[in-house]
Structures are given as C-alpha cells and as structure tokens.
Target: VWCE protein
Amino acid sequence: RGISREPGSRWTEPGCQNCTCQGGQVLCDTVSCSVPCSHPLPAPAGGCCPTCTGCLHEGVARAEGDVFSPSNGNCTICVCLAGNVSCLSPECPPGSCPSPSPADCCSCNPEKCNFRGRTYAHGARFSLDGDDCTTCVCQGGEVECSFTPCPVLDCPQHQRQLGPGQCCSTCRDPPAPAGCFLDDNGVEFPVGQIWSPGDPCELCICQADGSVSCQRTDCVETCPYPIRIPGQCCPDCSAGCTYMGRIFSNNETFPSALDPCLSCICLVR
Model:
C-alpha cells in the first residue's frame, strides 16, 4: 500500500486485521478478541475488541462502579464491576399478603400451612385422612375445610340411598310394579287380571310392566231379532226373540201386533 515496513514489524490494518512483515511478504490475520467479562462495552472508535472498563446492560452503557435498578427490577439493585453486572434482590419474609404498597419492595410470599403434621403450599387443596367427603384448602397459613357439595336429586327422600364409602346419596331404582293402579277409581289389579272398565264391549288386562292394555269386542249378529241381555256385550240369538219390545222364548207362539188374525212363532235359526 505504498508504505515500507521493516522485517518483523507488526501493525493493524482497517477491518481489525493484524499484519506482519516476514521475508518480504505481508501476512495478515483477523484480530482474535478475548472478553473476560459478561457485559462488555462495544469496541471504541478505531478499536477492534469490546472493553470491560464499563458494562452494557439492557442496551444501556453503564460506567465502572455504576449502581442502578433494572426496568422491571421490583427493587432489585445492580452494580457494574469490571464489565460484569451483579444484581441483588431483597429477601422478604413470608407474610399474609397485605395490600401491596408502592414503597414496599418485598413481593407477596404467602405462608404455608402446617396441618396434622404435614406442610401444604398456599392454594393447595387436599382431603382429610380417610375422609374423601371433606375438602380442605390452604389460604395464607390457615386451613379451611368444607364438605364436598352433592348434586340435587330429583327422587323423593324414601328412594335415596347412601352406599358404603360414598359421600353423596343416589336415587334407588324404583321397585318393579306389582300390578296396575287406576287413578280414576283407586282400584289396583294384579298382573294378568282382566276386567271391564264399564263398557261390556271393552276388556282390559294388566300388563307385567304395570301398564293397562284395553281392546273392544266386535259383535256379529246372526239373527234378525237378537236379545240384548243387560251387562252383556253382544246380543244373544239362542235365548229367544225380541218382538215389538217384548222377549219371547224359543218356539213360543204369540199374536201379531199388527194383525190380531196372524199368529207368530219364535224360531231360532
């Protein structure tokens, strides 16, 4: 570069290159920096290696021996020493977490709970020994216990049961029906019972599941003058004949209501 160098001489070129003159040749190597600190300052103007005569912390240059607090320090104190940043936080005793004060540097450390020989952290939930029906919680050094809440049951009291080891009652299955109960007249019929609900042409039966099944009877009249018997569904053609509102037995002879000269006879066919 137009400059004469003596054999064995050393110098630094721009770009942090260390050069030496050996046997008429220039040999150059990149400067190797050894930084023995954690927060060095960037290399000064014209220099190649960072310096430990100050500290660079969170993008801010700090002078040697500078004492400062970080942006989110919560009363933490830091100091710059030989390019290293050391920070100390205040030691705060456990407390019951009162309302925080701006002047109070201690953070809230809730007390643990000592209960029946065991230690529980703040907010821990646990059950009493052998009693899963009770739930306890540690709140700032105090233990509060309460019964485990049970769901609301939709069955009457006499159908509720509490099994072994259970905390809450459950509904028993309803008993199998023993018969059919009719609300209109209060009569209970056993399973398989057949009866007429008032209409002689309708028959009902009590099913095994407690339900009632009813069916009507279809009558087929086989004679022109059947006899209707009270309480019987279908008219009877074998008992005699009905004529002009009167009942005549089989083979009985009687005068005609329309012509006294005519004689009528009841014949079952």
Summary: The chain has a mean pLDDT of 81. The chain has four domains: 9-88, 113-146, 180-216, 225-268.
